[in-house]
Specification:
heterodimer; A: about 120 residues; alpha/beta; six-stranded mixed β-sheet; about 25% helix; about 25% strand; B: about 280 residues; nine-stranded mixed β-sheet; two-stranded antiparallel ribbon; about 30% strand; elongated; binds iron/sulfur cluster
Chain lengths: ~120, ~280
């Protein structure tokens, strides 16, 4: 299974980014191979619909779980369409978040944050 | 002839200049500031006709769709997203470009109209007036502006644009004969003015400047116009009687002095066109 964590950097000791649509990188962790893959978030450069572009990218990657801080309503719709579960991360390093998830210590996000809440408004 | 009136930013008196010149010169008036069209407050035209503006958006037939995601890939505006459970459509992001319909290999997409706003058409005692009005929460102004401009006839018309230099302004000034840039005599005014000047120069539109709330002591705009060899077609001094008329929703040309002043500006605008 693939887990996607919104990340500030492209290394596994990077910190989680609490924004979904506008985080610089997605860390993809494969629970079987225990390997990490990093990809740049297409949403960052999108002129509009950042959350949708980001959501599409994560869905296309085949992730089944997302760990992030806030997720906007548009991104949430895409993620839900992809039948992906979203968990509320605690803002630690990528590795720490994975550990928390595997220990069942993260809670699922049910409601989408208001649009643009990840944009410093 | 089409005359666009623009400003670096909001609140510089663009609508005051547009409505007063239009009335005093007997030119028609079109309000392209579709997010906040204020011109009708002063002109008080009788609206005779209203037409709705729609853009074509995709409608996906789930039965026919083979989930190939081609439509989502082609959409430049992220209005479509392909997921396991099907294609998700975000109407507010759709520009109605039709690309998705074109690429669908199985003809699962048809287009339907989605209303984004309206156009009011009417007249005052002497001039024809139109305004576009974008529905609240709709982000896409250019389709309304384009429709408005398609309705403008050959008569001399003032086009009141949105403030700033956004894509709405570009859509509004495309193809006009002259542009009038309204500004204020402040450093901020000059800063915004320079951006607007850059825009009209790039679009090769002859232009002139109207200085609103002019102040003889700090006249950095006049100096700028001299240095840049730009026609300063009018200076409107600040006066209390103007503020009073304005607050009552009246045109400044009800006052004799302003009436003359705006006539003079109107004539000099015609001169800008002639000189270019
Ligand atoms: S019409 Fe254009 S903008 Fe709208 S969904 Fe289709 S491709 Fe995207
Ligand atoms: S292009 Fe047509 S068939 Fe392919 S996903 Fe879109 S609607 Fe479905």
């Amino acid at each position: 299974m693939k887990i996607c964590i919104t990340s500030m950097g492209n290394e596994k000791d990077a910190m989680m980014d609490s924004r979904f649509g506008r985080c610089p990188y997605f860390a993809i962790y494969d629970t079987e191979t225990k390997e990490y893959e990093f990809m740049e978030n297409n949403g960052v450069t999108a002129p509009g619909g950042a959350g949708i572009a980001a959501g599409q990218q994560v869905v296309s990657k085949g992730a089944e779980v997302v760990i992030t801080g806030f997720i906007g309503p548009n991104a949430k719709r895409v993620i839900e369409g992809g039948q992906i579960k979203v968990y509320n991360g605690k803002g630690g390093s990528i590795e720490a978040e994975i550990k928390l998830y595997e220990e069942g210590k993260l809670t699922m996000i049910e409601n989408a944050a208001p649009a643009h809440s990840g944009m410093g408004k | 002839m089409k005359i666009a009136v623009l400003s670096g930013k909001g609140g510089t008196g663009k609508t005051t200049v547009s409505t007063n010149i239009a009335t005093v010169m007997n030119w028609n008036y079109v309000d392209c500031d579709v997010e906040e069209p204020n011109g009708f407050i002063f002109l008080k035209p009788e609206v005779k006709k209203t037409e709705y503006v729609k853009i074509p958006v995709p409608k996906i037939d789930e039965e026919k769709c083979i989930r190939c995601n081609k439509c989502a890939d082609v959409c430049q505006f992220n209005a479509l997203a392909g997921t396991k459970t099907g294609i998700i459509f975000f109407d507010k992001l759709c520009h109605g470009c039709g690309a998705c319909t074109m690429v669908c290999p199985v003809g699962a997409i048809t287009e339907e109209g989605r209303k984004i706003g309206k156009i009011d058409i009417g007249n005052t005692e002497s001039i024809k007036c139109m305004r576009g009005l974008l529905d609240i929460g709709e982000p896409m102004a250019p389709p309304i502006i384009k429709r408005l401009k398609a309705l403008v006839d050959e008569e001399t018309t003032i086009i009141d644009c949105s403030p700033g230099s956004s894509c709405s302004v570009v859509a509004a000034i495309e193809g006009v004969d002259v542009a009038i840039l309204v500004t204020e005599a402040t450093p901020f005014g000059l800063h915004d003015l320079k951006i607007a000047v850059e825009l009209v120069r790039q679009m090769n539109i002859p232009f002139g400047i109207v200085l609103n709330r002019a102040d003889e002591e700090h006249d950095l705009i006049t100096r700028y116009c001299e240095e840049e060899k730009i026609a300063l077609v009018g200076k409107i001094p600040y006066a209390k009687k103007a503020a009073v008329l304005y607050s009552e929703g009246k045109l400044l040309i009800e006052d004799e002095e302003y009436n003359k002043m705006f006539k003079g500006i109107g004539e000099r605008i015609l001169g800008v066109k002639a000189c270019s």
